[in-house]
Write a structure and sequence with these properties.
By secondary structure, the chain is an alpha/beta fold. It is 31% helix and 27% strand. It has a domain of 152 residues: 3-Layer(aba) Sandwich (Rossmann fold). The strands form 2 sheets. It has a 7-stranded mixed beta sheet. Strands 1-2 form a two-stranded antiparallel sheet. Strand 1 and strand 2 form a beta hairpin. The longest helix is centred in the middle third of the chain and has 14 residues. The protein binds S-adenosyl-L-homocysteine. The site of S-adenosyl-L-homocysteine has 24 residues, from strand 2, helix 5 and strand 4.
Length: 220
Amino acid sequence: MKRRLQGIGMTSRRTRERMVSRLRQQGVLNTQVLAVMADIPRHIFVDEALESRAYEDTALPIGHNQTISQPYIVARMTELLLEKSSLGRVLEIGTGCGYQTAILARLADQVYSVERIAPLMKKARDLLWELDIKTVGFKHGDGNCGWPEHAPYDAILAAAAPAEIPEALLQQLAVGGVMVIPVGSEGKQALHRVVRSEDGFIDEVIECVTFVPFLSGVSH
Ligand code: SAH
């Protein structure tokens, strides 16, 4: 594992730095986000056969019909959260392979991550342990319910697109908190940023995106 963490050639730190330069050209400017993305090895989150493609700006399969989000989207969503809030307590819906989770964990005090597919959740948990990231709580569950035990959250990030924002997630957002979530049906999704104020929610549409659907129930 140690050798894999280090990486060589297409999985080296230099390749990762090229990914970060590309992110900068694409308009991601937050230096904290760029520094963390230069540091976290993305290739260990994908199958070994796909390792050499891990730093391309593309989504890649992670099994169970799911994908690791493309680097630009991970960076952009993280930056959108940081613009509005310091990341104290963060809720993530859709752990997937755990890459976004690792990025958030480096920037937040505590991350709570919910995944509906049990084997993905377990693999992500093991990988973050390998990376010595110990400030993440994992839950196998349906993100429609959020994770009420640890609410309210300063930030919520969803990596799957519901038709409408689940009510439980709105309720679990702290006043002054921010949520970044793709909303809409296939082919018609937009990234939203919702900020909770004393009087209600301010919903801002950011850009068009493509995410896997936000499903109901759990899978073992
Ligand atoms: N950021 C992740 C994205 C994975 S894809 C990564 O880069 O790997 C989105 C994930 O959301 C999938 O793993 C999918 O199983 C999960 N998901 C979809 N609907 C969900 C729900 N209702 N509750 C929890 N997780 C959900």
